[in-house]
Amino acid sequence: MRSVQLGTHAHNALLGVTSAGDGRCVSTVAKDGVVTYDVEEEKRERTLALDRGRKFACAVACGSNGRYYACLEKEQESDSSYLCAWETEQSANAATVGEASKECVTTLDLGRSGRVRELVAVDGGALVVTTTGEVQLFGMSAEHIDKARTSGELGSRRVETASVLPESVGALVVTTDGNFQGRKIATFLARAQTVTLAWELDIEHPDGAAKARVASAASDGETFMVLWDDGVWALHDASDGSLKHKLRLDGLDVHCDEATSGKRSKKSEDTSPLASAASLCLSQDYYAVVANSKEENTVVVAVFDSRYGAVHLAEDVSRGLEHKVGRTSGVSLAATSGNLIVGLSDQVVSVQFDLPELSLASLVGSLSIHSQPEASAAAIRVLGAETASTALVPPQHAAVTPGWKLEELKLDGQGVVSLSNVWDDDDAQTREKKVRSTAEALASGSKKAGSSLQTLMKSLPIPQILIESAISGGLNHRVWDSVTLLLAGGHIRGSSTARQLVTALLEEDMLDEVKDFLVYAKDVSAEDIVAILHSAMMRDEDDPGLKKRASANKKLAEKVLDEAEACASDEKFNGEAKQKLFARAQLLVSAYDSFAPWAQQLHPLIARPLDPTMGMLVLRDLSKQDAVSLLQYLLVWANFYASSGGYFARINTLVEPGIPSAHAVVTWTSALLDAQFTTFCLSDDVAEPVRALRESSSQMLDMMRSLAALGGAFRHVGENSPLPEQHGVQSTTYTVESVAW
């Protein structure tokens, strides 16, 4: 961020700032002249004084060709106004605006009640917007060419705000009647030496606030934004005026000046307490807004997008300035070379910005106030913390499903299925009310809410508000029926959405629920893994909860074993089906017979994948006793897979929820050895388990080495590639036994 001090002559008198057209210079307009600055060099380049006895009717406009336009009027406002034009070279050789523009001056015909409201540079000339809603087109020599006006009688409406359209093709004008009612927004395009009214739409405050006024407006051609003086930012579709996005900028209170005066309007209870605002369309995707705060000592710049309505940039430009922001008579905004140029009463501020590509990811990052602090700062600064939090809550919680039946579907004349009116808005609202009432009941700890939750669980996905409310009710009121229901169905998917839940379940001795969490969760935090690991190792062998879980494991193992024995002599089962049953029986029987009840509680935890970083966080702080116990636990599994013989391949590919695979055992063993390497090296009593672990690993490696030789062939066949005839392998002899690449 850079700033340039204007000097005392411009204090409290800045009318506007405009890009000078060369990509690096900006021009400011004060009551007594035009000053051009080099933004990159941070220095003043040229100063052009205003003629004595004259004043600017509005800010100077500068076109892309480096030509300046200015509307001047007498200080006593008794004489007619006129438009003048000049080029950069002329201002360099002149002392005053009148001298630089003496050959290009035209008197403005504004009518009896009209005055200049805004001046906009367009391709090949300039547009003068009057306070009565008339738009006049002038050429490069300030000659009058054409004019157009908004609908209604001339003089019966007043312009509330006006701004330039992108690519300098015209102007956007907001008009209202004398009572600030019946607002219209219109675009005027300057083409082929004519100015035409392209479109005009009626607009009103999104919330129906009758006393709100328009502080600023801008358009990209396809959409237009309106910033109301009560802090509501609304984005509309330019084709029909429909509302696309609405944000309440609680972090930016704004206030519009009187349309017919450059003076600050008096504050009252009916107006916003903030000074002023300005807006600008940066591209077809982004809008910039600048507003000064109610304390009148900060100025915040914000950038919104037209696709998602998110906040992508928010910066308090008053921070870090050499000179504090004082009482301003308004703020102005321009853009040049990747910078936003903010004009204040006594200084010009250049804000560098780098906007992201519009995407759903950028939307989430810009509105999130939890995961990304840098991105969230923009949303909090502009929306306020409370509003930013509300923006994350989806407006619709209920899952709405279509109500059609297949037998009722009919084809239209073009062979397209006509679904008629299958979406029932009343039904959707009813479901939404049901979801909200159930969520409130769950959060309050009501035991009757479980039946309502079961009904709503028939529609997927489960609304997140129900999950959060059930967890909240369980943690606060120790009512766990709904949590058990959600865990068993796999709807609580990780530690990030269920903070403190695992700790509470362990305290309540709810081992079945902990297992369901480990089986279905997508993410489990290091804190939860440590808590589960320590809880299992600290339990007493006679713990009733452990005996209950061990009894359930025994029944499951016996059931699978009986099924395997029954199919051994049953001819209905083929060889592959029998192998699968035998492998599963061997796996579950070992999971019960080979482990003590406390160790059985580790099965679902060890069955989860473990990356090296997480493994170091979880395992490095284990005590020697716990580390040795975990090593012996892993050794039992390693011996099982090493001794599985011909069933190793089948068991290793068998997916059994909550039972560690060979890959999981190897992963956890490697992580444990890395995290506790020093402890194991210095402990003589660990040497024997480590040696046994090495032998088991060698046996598994020998079995896998023969299978690994077929990896290329398996991939070749799996990708449906042609047979390698050119390598001496004939189609008739192409078998698994004879091919090893």
TrEMBL record:
SUPFAM superfamilies hit by this protein: Soluble quinoprotein glucose dehydrogenase (SSF50952)
One Gene Ontology cellular component annotation held by this UniProt entry: nucleolus
Coiled coil location: none
GO molecular function: RNA binding
GO biological process, alphabetically ordered: maturation of SSU-rRNA
Superkingdom of this protein's organism: Eukaryota
Record's protein name: Uncharacterized protein
Lineage: Eukaryota, Viridiplantae, Chlorophyta, Mamiellophyceae, Mamiellales
